[in-house]
Amino acid sequence: MSSVALLQTFSITTSILAAGGIASLSIFNVPSLRALPASRALPQIRWLFSRGSHVFPSAATLSSAGFVALAVLALPDNTRITLLEKLLEGLRDKGVVQGYAAAAVLCMGIGPFTAVMVPTNFEMMRMNEEKAGTRSQRSEKEGKGTKQGGGGKDSALSSIAGEGQASEWTDLSGPQGKTGEETSKEDDEKVGELLERFGLMNMVRAVLIGGGGVVGLLTALA
User: In the predicted model, what is the mean pLDDT of residues 191-201?
Assistant: First the structure.
């Protein structure tokens, strides 16, 4: 199998699998979590955030890099011009280079769009911290949490950084079963709304990286 075929297989497969994984959160996980009280839903969504933050950005980066490499390999074979000139020339001509470039842009598009989701994600992480929730069973067992007096952005940032919690790289335990403190009916309603919003925005991410995979596939078959 040639290097081009390997890159095509890797980039297309990675992006489409990642799209399926991201979409499954919105299609299966979010509805299940919305049926739970906030005291049980918050630790689980926090655990999903932790796992997903390593898997999906890496998949987007790798598949995008693969599509960029394919675009470069498809550039005109003219050694008298620079790589930048080749790239610009290839982008001007409709075809393979444009297709792979578009696939790369779509895959990496989940990065900027995730920034739009940050306020929603942070709000759920803040609530989890305020209710003495942890990132995982191991963090709970070791008594490691990041609960701070006022919660808010600082506690969410501390949670992301893993301050006072078990290392994400060695912690393979599942989600905490329930927050240390009980939640109210108002909390349940608020978390349900946040989860619904997250599910909708998360589907956009699935469409972006999945679209990149489809565009890459169509370009490879062209």
Answer: 97
